[in-house]
Design a protein that fits this description.
alpha/beta; FAD/NAD(P)-binding domain; 2 domains; 8-stranded mixed sheet; 6-stranded mixed sheet
Length: 386
């Protein structure tokens, strides 16, 4: 195989699919998505919990969320596919004054950035939202009803289908083996099926992004970190319209997935690796935290076959790296989302497409996410990380 493309996107997950969608929307249809697996969604996309929130602590993350939530709310109109977007809200629970002060400060910033619906809630209001919660140590929280969740696979499928209808090609079972340059310009992507000549390459390889960047001599500070998820059997002792609930005392969080409850907890001792094996011992660890916050979870039944592990792609400052790669014309980065890749996929697709087509983003100011921030000491600080 030897072919040409205006743009080659490495990685066929939700981020790569969104980039292809927005390129095609702007008339750039000679695009190839290269995916090494037999089908899309076998990486982090298909293992994501699907959370979508604008309750962040930095302007760029808030802006990306606001853009993306608007897209999710109109997704069927835009793509002909459903995102399965459920605006059930996000509820952050604070158990000390420091955390409550943090939420109040975040709310001020979020309001300044255009998030109108977020509010600080009292212990009594939290009990109204979730009557089953243990509330004796709760001092307050924050709630935003426009936060919620989507089905990552559906979003990825919708973006891909629309892009392909406009001419984008999807190559499955195709591994990238190298990237050729002509001086300081991208010339071709070498794959297991031959070369694809191109002048623009987008690295959207998720947790594997650093290995792709290394092919072109870039040391990308993105590392893989396992996150484990459990899913209960059908459970009806908490509200049907349940928000994503986050216990700030330990990071335990949960939401409804149909008739079941999906739970996650950021294991503090987890080390960077590509390990995606699920630890059965994790079930007891997370249920202990679940029962501590919501005692009726003691009745929840968990089948290990309904549990899994996926990978975050983590950067030193817990913010994505989006934009041009330094020193290599035509190489673009869309990496390091740290668990926010699904929720920020629409904004990322829009930003990257504008970098490729116009040389800079026009819709959102993505300068804070530039790769150069690490060398220049301009690291961001996102503390609202799950």
């Amino acid at each position: 195989m030897s072919e040409t493309a205006d743009v080659v996107i490495i990685g066929g997950g939700i981020v790569g699919a969104s980039i292809a969608y927005y390129l095609s929307e702007s008339g750039c249809t000679n695009v190839v998505i290269v995916e090494r697996e037999a089908r899309q969604g076998l990486g982090s996309t298909g293992k994501s919990i699907g959370g979508v929130r604008a309750q962040f602590a930095t302007p760029i993350n808030i802006q990306m969320s606001l853009f993306s939530i608007d897209v999710f709310s109109r997704f069927e109109e835009l793509t002909g596919h459903t995102a399965q977007y459920h605006s059930f809200g996000y509820l952050f629970i604070a158990t000390n004054e420091k955390h409550l002060h943090y939420l109040k400060a975040n709310r001020e910033l979020q309001t300044e950035q255009g998030l109108r619906d977020v509010r600080i809630v009292s212990r009594e209001e939290i009990v109204e939202i979730l009557p089953q919660v243990r509330s004796d140590d709760i001092v307050g929280g924050s709630f935003c009803p426009t936060d919620g969740f989507v089905d990552p696979y559906s979003v990825m499928t919708g973006f891909t289908a629309k892009a392909r209808a406009r001419g984008t090609r999807l190559l499955l079972n195709t591994e990238v083996t190298g990237i050729s340059t002509d001086g300081c310009k991208v010339r071709a992507v070498e794959t297991s099926r031959g070369a694809i000549e191109t002048r623009a390459v987008v690295n959207a390889a998720g947790a594997w992004a650093a290995s792709i960047a290394k092919m072109i001599g870039i040391d990308l500070p993105v590392k893989p970190l396992r996150r484990q998820i459990i899913n209960t059997e059908p459970f009806d002792l908490v509200p049907r319209r349940l928000p994503m609930v986050i216990d700030m005392s330990n990071g335990f969080h949960f939401r409804r997935e149909g008739s079941c409850i999906m739970m996650a907890w950021p294991e503090p001792e987890e080390i960077y690796s590509f390990n995606t094996n699920f630890d059965r011992d994790f079930i007891e660890e997370i249920l202990t935290r679940a029962v501590n916050r919501v005692p009726c979870f003691e009745e929840a039944q968990v089948n290990a076959r309904r549990c899994w592990a996926g990978l975050y792609e983590v950067t030193p400052d817990h913010h994505a790296i989006i934009g041009k790669a330094p020193g290599i014309e035509g190489f673009y980065l869309a990496n390091g989302f740290g668990g926010h890749g699904v929720m920020h996929s629409p904004a990322t697709g829009k930003i990257v497409s504008e970098f490729v087509l116009f040389g800079e983003p026009r819709t959102l100011d993505a300068r804070p996410l530039a790769f150069e921030r690490f060398a220049e000491g301009r690291l961001l600080e996102e503390t609202a990380v799950l």
